[in-house]
Amino acid sequence: MTNQNLRNPPDMFKVRHLLIVKLSSIGDVVHALPVSAALKETYPHLKISWVVEQMAAPIVQGNPYLEEVITLPADWRKNRMSMRSAWLFTDIRKELRARRFDVAIDLQGLSKSALIAWASGAKFRYGYDWLRELAPFLVQRIPRHPESVHIVDQFMDVARYLGANNTKIQFPLCIPPEEEKSALDLLERAGLDLNHPYLVINPSSGGGGNKGWGGEKFSAFIDAFTSKTGLQIVLIGGHGDVEEEKSILSRTKWNPSSVVGKTNLKQMMAILKHCALHLCGDTGSAHVAAALETPVISLFGRSNPDRLAPYGQSQNVIHHREMCKEACRRFHETAPINSKQKCLSPPPACIAAITVDEVVDKAIKLLEGKGIEGL
Q1: Is 344 a residue whose pLDDT tops 60?
Q2: CA dihedral sign of residues 289, 291, 296, 301
């Protein structure tokens, strides 16, 4: 199945149908959005489709640069060796090949995404710089430019390889008016006064148990920040963050509003669009906020902010990765910083080193820069 036809890029003016494969997660799919904009603006004739998993599908739904969004069944990867998985993959392959894709771009770089690119039947199949598992055998790696450090720029290297001449980074997120209205109504029912600015906190650990700041520190931040500023605060998050929400609310003297577990992804986007500032860990909402040009403070552990910070807001990342070298010596010596290897110190020393005071100070400084009154 190794792709042997990819020594030179195709004539993109003759390409009719292009497939982008970026399946998950929320933040990763946000990072890939500029590729669709750059290619479509350079080649207006292109019909661009995007394959995505169900959880992250709202990030690409409504993207004006796409012809269609193909959402994979929720259980398509469960029990990969089962007969049902084989049937599902056969159905996916049949559906994709019926579209007669000329080019497929795998921006995930894993076996699952490379197999989708291969299943599309596209003669030309490309992936960005960092390919893992079976991906190098199924798609052609596009080396990154030396100046492309951030993952968004590394994805854009693939678009540039295909001749995209629009270097402007655009994040075409779509928030339907009805979802925006329902989100703002939800905030009002939760007790927020929408005539005044508010701060949004997402306490989620982003699906990684070694990324969370913890309910105790978020609650301490809420009390310290509220006593100094009086600004409204609302908690957001998914159903999996309800226990963290309870942990925070049980500790705070100043009770924030909360819509944890009550919003869909489009509604969350609307809430982040209208807030004055977003505070979160290394998680998807950070990248959504940045794409919406909302100031965001992101608390990082061992992840490299040069590569993975909310795009254009690396200066607002708070981290103490210098702690990794001491507390996680074995990790530091045997694996690259973006490895999937788990941190060795529970909880990670780099996360624990982030203080409430430095987060409060950063938040107040950003809000003062926006001219928020009363600070």
Answers
A1: no
A2: positive
